[in-house]
Design goal:
alpha+beta, Immunoglobulin-like, Rossmann fold, 4 domains, 6-stranded antiparallel beta sheet, 6-stranded mixed beta sheet
């Protein structure tokens, strides 16, 4: 497609060049066959007339087309977010459009092109989805529309729509998804385990009449005696308002990518999920981020606006290229978090050496709180390590890869030996693993 510079944004599609090409061939043949010369001249005049008519219709005064883009003001990280562009044809003829939307540069999509047919006087809607892989502000530009003439010999460019911007937050859709799946009657269908409560919590609620199915260990014999033999049982309610903190490491160990997202972004999405689930379970949700320096702190609470504060804080977190400081984490927790709490620590240990550096701090934190370190298994490395070797060099490389995989499992075993519960998971299963662990701890009365 070629552009002619001038007052009008006129482009020549490939179909235009077939017309002069055919005329050139016809004139060339007329040198040998003289009878073709009048025919060639007549067709040339006819082609010129059609071309002028085509251009006249294409550039009629007024606004032949209107376009409006609609999308949510807030997008979710790693979600398929819908964009709708509505076209309104104000002419008396159907329009064939080639649409190039100026989508945000952060998405790095350089071949966006859609074809739309809009009937005369009608509206047509183009719907497409975009999946952002980083948090931040994404800016849309104008909508560039190439409108074909009735004979498809010419093409006019129209710049429509208005620039706009959207904010990409941690995935609210994923948060609502796991909030729904945490309900007991549907959880088991999606990999979230149903936990049987062991024992009782410490919060006594009331004494009630015994009905079939009640735990006989809860029978209150004194109340039963006062009721003349009618069995009475103690009823307990789950302990509530327990602090649940997400501690997020923002250092370079969390920069490793997996399916378009960094480990830090997986941790941020999961922190939003577990905060929402814990608030729904009547616990308090809090947040702390760190690397070589303290990033931010939000005290645990379950007030109505707490999830909004957590969302905004997670949105503003930026990765750092430095190593994390375990002592900084310990001092921050000791100074800022009062009372025993459940701490989900999102970090990544690549080797036993990195664990040995942090282990003294982890042991001290686990003595004061219930600490659950979360680190990641490299799925691609695991698949490669246990694949079939093709030659001796490949066998050597796969053996080294197996050693890295075993190191991860040894790290989990070492923490277990010191009484520290941990989660080793792939990034795509992180949210399910953390929600399962939280529900397990709630069922055991550990928090």
């Amino acid at each position: 497609m070629h552009r002619l510079r001038g007052r009008f944004s006129l482009f020549l599609p490939n179909a235009f060049f077939f017309l002069p090409g055919g005329l050139f061939l016809l004139f060339a043949l007329s040198y040998r066959y003289n009878d073709l010369l009048p025919v060639a001249r007549g067709m040339a005049f006819a082609a010129a007339g059609l071309l002028l008519l085509d251009a006249f219709v294409l550039f009629l005064p007024g606004r032949p087309l209107l376009a409006k883009r609609k999308t949510a003001s807030h997008w979710g990280l790693a979600d398929a977010n819908r964009v709708r562009i509505t076209f309104r044809n104000r002419t008396f003829m159907p329009l064939h459009l080639v649409v190039i939307d100026e989508i945000p540069i952060e998405l790095q999509i350089r071949d966006f092109r859609r074809h739309v047919q809009v009937d005369a006087g009608k509206e047509e809607t183009l719907v497409y989805t975009l999946t952002p892989n980083t948090r931040g502000v994404y800016a849309f530009g104008h909508i560039q529309v190439f409108m074909d003439s009735p004979l498809r010999l010419l093409r006019r460019r129209l710049t429509l729509g208005e620039p706009c911007s959207v904010k990409v937050y941690p995935s609210i859709r994923q948060m609502k998804h796991y909030s729904l799946l945490s309900l007991p009657h549907i959880a088991t269908h999606y990999g979230i385990r149903k936990m049987r409560r062991i024992g009782h919590s410490y919060e006594f609620e009331q004494i009630k009449d015994y009905v079939q199915g009640d735990d006989i260990r809860s029978i209150n014999w004194k109340a039963t005696g006062r009721r003349g033999g009618q069995l009475m049982v103690n009823q307990y309610e789950d302990e509530r308002a327990q602090p649940v903190y997400s501690l997020i490491d923002k250092s370079r160990a969390m920069h490793m990518p997996f399916e378009g997202l960094s480990l830090l972004d997986y941790a941020i999405n999961t922190a939003l999920v577990i905060s929402n689930v814990s608030v729904q379970k009547h616990d308090k949700a809090g947040l702390l981020t760190y690397s070589d320096k303290l990033g931010g702190f939000l005290p645990a609470d379950r007030k109505s606006g707490q999830m909004g504060l957590i969302l905004e804080m997670l949105y503003n977190q930026k990765p750092r290229q430095t190593e994390s400081d375990p002592e900084l984490l310990y001092n921050a927790v000791r100074r800022l978090i009062r009372g025993r709490s459940l701490l989900f620590l999102y970090t990544n240990f690549e080797s036993m050496h990195s664990l040995e550096r942090a282990l003294p701090v982890l042991r001290r934190l686990n003595m004061q709180h219930l600490l659950i370190p979360i680190f990641f298994e490299n799925k691609e490395l695991t698949d490669y390590a246990y694949g079939e070797a093709e030659n001796e060099e490949d066998l050597f490389a796969r053996t080294i890869a197996q050693q890295f995989v075993q190191d991860k499992r040894q790290i989990a075993g070492t923490m277990a030996a010191y009484g520290i519960q941990s989660i080793l998971t792939t990034p795509d299963k992180l949210s399910i693993a953390v929600v399962n662990k939280y529900l397990e701890l709630k069922a055991r009365g550990a928090i």
